[in-house]
Amino acid sequence: MTRAASPALRRLFAESCRGHLSRQVVRTRRWYSDSPSRPRTAIFFPGQGVQKVGMLTPWLEAFPSTAKQLVDEIDSFMGYKLSDVIQKGPPKVLTRTTNAQPAIMATSILILRILEKEFGFRISDHVDVALGHSLGEFAALVAGGHLTFQDSLYLVQKRAEAMSEATRKAIKEYGGEYGMVAIITEPEYMPALIETVRGFVGGSDAGNKAGNDEDVPPIEQVLIANINSKNQIVLSGNLERIKTLIAHIRQFLGHDPRAVQLHSDSPFHSPIMKPAVAVMRSLLNKKSRVPGRENEDIVTYPAQLQCISNITARPFKSKEDLKDLLARGCLDTVRWWDSIRYLDQEERVRRWVGIGPGMVGRNLVGKEVGMRGKDMVKGGGVWAITDPLEVEEVLRGLEDTRGIMDEEEVLQNSIDSKLELVVAVDRGATTPVCVAPIPGSQLTLQPQRSPSDSPSKPHDILRHDHDNTLDRLHRRHRAQRRSGQNNPLHISIFPSYDAATNSFAPIRTPLQFSLLLSSTIDVFELRAKHNAVSGDFGLLHAVDDRLAAYGAQTNTGVRLVCVVDMRGRRIGSAAGSLPSSAAPPPAVSGLREAELKPAFRAMQNAYVRLLQNPFFEPDEHTPLGGRGGRKITSRRFAEDMKRIGEGWTPGVTNLG
């Protein structure tokens, strides 16, 4: 079923899955509330920019009764038919800040309420922490119980009006054109980029201008509005001033970042928004507007869930802290990247559920934590519910990962299991290692030298019988995993031709190659002092009487390994079996180290192309900084490795 499914199909889907999934969630509720080992889970909500005309339609079609009741409540709270603007547009009207902000927030909570009413989803049983990107912070506070839906919609409506009015006054008084521009750069340039921006605008704090008594004319105001990821920030303010700043960066930082102007009618999170902060402070100090709660504070603290502040990237500490930071949210920098890192690295959140229109939030979270959808290896997943057709996948994913242990628990409790080794391979290293090996199982050559010609230490463990070698490698790999060393980031395997069966088959499993490579890379340390200039390490060592490992290292610390099958003959195709009538290709009489240089050059070029993609965000961008990275999963990179592995043969001089 696709997103283009008809209303009838949506209703059929809803009826078929509603009963099953709601029973499934209710059935597991006791487990969620009683078990201390449930993976920590975060729910997150999108900010402005994800609005789309008709975004309520799928929910009205799939759950007409529940959705219609919620839509009527929204219109009643707003005092006008916001639902007509959402459903009919036109886009120019929906995109106005005064419509877009309440529309996005209302749609996000509508989806959450449908999950609760139709599927028995109790957020306190499934989720530990809530957060939202800028505007999404209000939806997170509703989900966490700190604000009621009605009060939150009122606050968002008044916030949007105040922000639009602040922009209108700035244009009237000072002139100029205002907006927001996303800057995309390589992660290693990000710290210098942020410092350059701060120096350019004359402030040490990129976002906190709420207490600055000396007003700067808006024509000169530019600020970092969002720090979205390790390679993306958003600038906000006067567009001419932003262009000057980008030219300054290109001239003095020695870097040419990519700049993309966003579709925004106001420069959010810039000093122009200072009047909106005063409006929000006043509103947050009033009582609730909900009937029956008129004498209660508009903010509830503590509540059922912790919520993360956009400004501090940490949980709110008190009711006063929440009010102060929420008011400043119009003005200060959104530290989204820091928030995700905090939850991932310090709070060890392993399951992430996005609620609301658009996929931007899920993509930002997924890239940072290295997951898409359910990831059983990492004991969690990153999901998003933007359409009824996605509900089943998300609830099943939560069900399937409910008992998965964190990887550290796996390492401690299953020290001899293969699962532990797979987890270890997929997680990042702290040692700067990028391995894009061609375990040359397809590159089958006549032996060049005997294994006895290769150094026997410190890798003599590779010279024993296969079972003993694998057992020793398991123990070695576990030790290296604990110290963060030598975890390959990419492995491409090309099966060797087996003359006995007249077919192709790998001579090692991916796990065995990973273990082998973890030890192989140790040889780089021994050779570094002799090959630091050229980076050409040549033959690292003979693995056994069939495999030989060759290596090279780039000047940025990226290490490349080719493991070549030295027995047999080069085969032209790795797919399927050879015809019985096919004559064997002529034998190749040996392999000189220089003949692998084209392969290493092509591998390095492929890696450079990977880093030049502004939407790819691997940790291994900064190998010399001592940070490793997660497994490379780029399809383009894998295709490049396949092309190199299948195209290389002794004598080839250019592989791209």
Automatic annotation (TrEMBL):
Keywords associated with the record: Acyltransferase, Transferase
Protein name per its UniProtKB record: [acyl-carrier-protein] S-malonyltransferase
InterPro entries named among the record's database cross-references: Ac_transferase_dom_sf, Acyl_transferase_dom, Acyl_Trfase/lysoPLipase, Longin-like_dom_sf, Mal-CoA-ACP_Trans/PKS_FabD, Malonyl_transacylase_ACP-bd, Sedlin
Pfam families, sorted: Acyl_transf_1, Sedlin_N
Comp. bias intervals (Polar residues): 441-455
Range of residues in the leader sequence: none
Region (Disordered): 440-468
Highest taxon of source: Eukaryota
Domain Malonyl-CoA:ACP transacylase (MAT): 44-374
The keyword Transferase is annotated on this UniProt entry: yes
Source organism per UniProt: Stachybotrys chartarum (strain CBS 109288 / IBT 7711) (Toxic black mold)
GO annotation terms (biological process): endoplasmic reticulum to Golgi vesicle-mediated transport; fatty acid biosynthetic process
Segments of skewed composition (Basic and acidic residues): 456-468
Catalysis performed (reactions): holo-[ACP] + malonyl-CoA = malonyl-[ACP] + CoA
PANTHER family: MALONYL-COA-ACYL CARRIER PROTEIN TRANSACYLASE, MITOCHONDRIAL (PTHR42681)
GO molecular function annotations of the record: [acyl-carrier-protein] S-malonyltransferase activity
Cellular component terms (Gene Ontology): mitochondrion
Gene3D superfamilies with a match to the protein in the record: 3.30.450.70, Malonyl-CoA ACP transacylase, ACP-binding, Malonyl-Coenzyme A Acyl Carrier Protein, domain 2
Enzyme Commission number(s) from the entry: 2.3.1.39
Acyltransferase in keyword set: yes
